[in-house]
Each structure stands twice: as structure tokens, then as C-alpha cells.
Please model this.
Amino acid sequence: MEHEVETERIMRTARLAGRLLLENGAETYRVEDTVKTILEGFGFEEVAVLALPTGAVYSFVDEKGVPRSEVIRTKARTTNLGQVAKVNSISRGMVSGEIALEEGCKSLEALRQARPQPLWIAMPASAVSAAFFSLLFGASGFDFCIAFLCGALTRALAMFFREDSVSSTMYALISGAISAIIAAGSVRLFHIGNQTPIIIGAIMPLLPGLAITNAIRDTVNGDLVSGVARTADALLKAVAIAAGVGAVIALWR
Amino acid sequence: MTFTKALFDLIVAGIATAGFGLLFRAETKSLAPGALIGGIGYVLYDALVLAFGSTAVAAFAAGVLVGAASEAAARAFKSPTIVFATMGIIPLVPGYGLYRTMEYVVGADYTRALASGMETLLVAGAIAMSLGFSTVIARRLLRMARRKPMDGRLG
Model:
């Protein structure tokens, strides 16, 4: 009976770690590796893990020789590099024995409860990023300020969208369109500046940087299904942004 | 390309990268190294575009540098490689090419749109290849370094 409680706790920890990594944008091999290391680290045999961008399955043989397995399904996908780093160090600590199982499980639970990024950080971060990218593409002082505004507004807009895949594609489309409306509108209104660097600066923070990085790393690692899926995801987002910008420019010439 | 231009690129691309990193919630300790990698990668990219005129070759070389620096930073700062690689490649991502392509499509200039679209895809492919390349090399070197003291063979 005591064994059973222990097994449940280990499974719960592995499931939590896997889910957190999947939802926050870790590469496929990191999800598989982490779940596998936790289960093997606590003495289970014949551990097998299969992770995909939308979920994971694992199976192992428990101390009585009974095979067990579990499915982790995820819908929401965000990018939270800090969470990935934290889950990584907690699971390493648990396996090396520096962190007790119970304590590690609690820390993972706490990470799961983590609040979304507050707007007062997200808006300036996006605004600064957009404004400085526009400078790289030859923005004037005026363009810089408008790109700053675009970056802040598109991030505020994100609050109205959920984090599943349909919503995030719609978000890419709409925020591309809004950036183009602000850029084209302000250039026409004040008769100064150039809309090109403003729009490029504004769409840079929207581009799927993590999806691209992960698509490459997954493919190189031999996780072909995830690699292709993430490439499709990145292309879809890029096309959605371009379509949003394009529609506005086509209508407002 | 003057020194002033390089310095301007380094600082501006660095700040833009740091903003991007903050937006995607990188830990505070990773922001400065990530921004530096992004800035240096962009300076190299810009210099190579001016020197050779090929955006794909420049993106590949800069991508190799970003990938290698990210692998090194991951070990130095004990944080996953993707944290640094995601930040580092963002200034290289062909946002300008995407915009140009779309502008040509809107203007029904499909010949130029095709050329611009091809170049954009080529740059994206070059970044992908370069990151993959440096990941494989870094892992190989690490495995060699680990195995060496044990049995003296090159693995």
C-alpha cells in the first residue's frame, strides 16, 4: 500500500513536469528526457516516453511488475522560457537527490499556479522590442515612437485571446492588421515618417521565434513529427501576420 | 561599415532582443547574455551582407555564431539552450523579407513577389541549417570532452 502511494506521487510529479514543459514551449526531447529521467531516477524500469507538441504518453513497469501508462494532453501553448528553465532545474535537482520528491512536486505545483505576465511588464517589453527593431530598419524618431505605440497596443490586445492554436492564429492576423492601420494612419495623418520600418518593427515581436527554434532542434534530434508540426505552426503564424498587414495595405493605398 | 554603425547595431539589436526575451519571460539572469548574443549575431549578419551581398550566406554564418554562443551560454548560466537561441536568432528572422514579399503580392507584382519570397525562405532555411549545425557540433564536442578522461579515445 505504501508503495502504491509512493508510485502515485512519482507519476504525479512526472506528469506535472511533462505538462509544464509542453505548455511553456520546451523542445520535444526535453519533455521526453525529463519525464524519463524522473521515472528512471526513482527506480522504475522499461520507461518509454513519447512526446508531441500537443501531448505526451509514458509507460513503465512498476515494482510489482505491472505495466502502467498515462496520457498527458495539452491544448494551451504559451512561450515562457523562464518556466522551462525552472522545471529543468527542479527535475535535475530531484534526480540528483538535492531536492526531495515531495518538495520538488510542491515546487512544480507552485509553478503551475504561476500568474500570467502582468501588462505593466508585457506592454513595455513588446513596445521597446518593436521600437528598437524599427530602428534597425531605418526608422526616424517619429517612426520609432509609432512603432513603440504599435508594440504596446498589440500586446494589450493579447489579453482578449486565449492561448490555443485557433486564437493565436487569429491574434497574429489581427495584430498584424492593427499595426498596419496605426502605421499607415499616422504617416498619412502627420505627413511625416515612413510606414515600412514601423510595420516591420511592429511585426518582429509577433514572429514565431520559439516555434522556429524548436522546429529546428526537434528535427535535428530526430523528432520528425514534432519538427514538421512546429514548422507548419511557424509558417501559419508568419502567413497570418503577413495577411493581416497585407489586407490593410491593399485596402488603404 | 564603420565602427559607429556596428556599435549602433549592437546596442539597438541588443535592446530589441532583450525586450523580446522579457516578453517571452526569460529569467532575468538570461536577459543580458541573450541580448548580447542577439546583438553580436546581428552585427555579424549586417557586416557579411555588406561584404558579400548574400543575405542567406550572412544569415547562415551569423546563425552558426548564435547557435554556438547559445550552447556555451547554456552551460555557463545553467539554463536551457533554447532560452538563448530563441533570443539570439530573433534579429536574424527575415521580417523585412516577409514585409517586402507581402507588399509585392498586394501590388500584384508576382515576379518580384516570387523572388523576394524565395529569398525570405532561403534566409529562414539558412538560419535553420546553421542552428542545427552548431547544435550537432556542440554536442559532438561535449561528448568528446566527456569521454576523453575515461578511456582516452576520441568519440
User: Anything to note?
Assistant: Residues 110-151 of chain B form the longest helix (42 residues). The helical segments of chain B are 3-23, 28-52, 55-77, 81-89, 95-106, 110-151. Chain B touches chain A through 47 residues (CB under 8 Å). The mean pLDDT of chain B is 90.
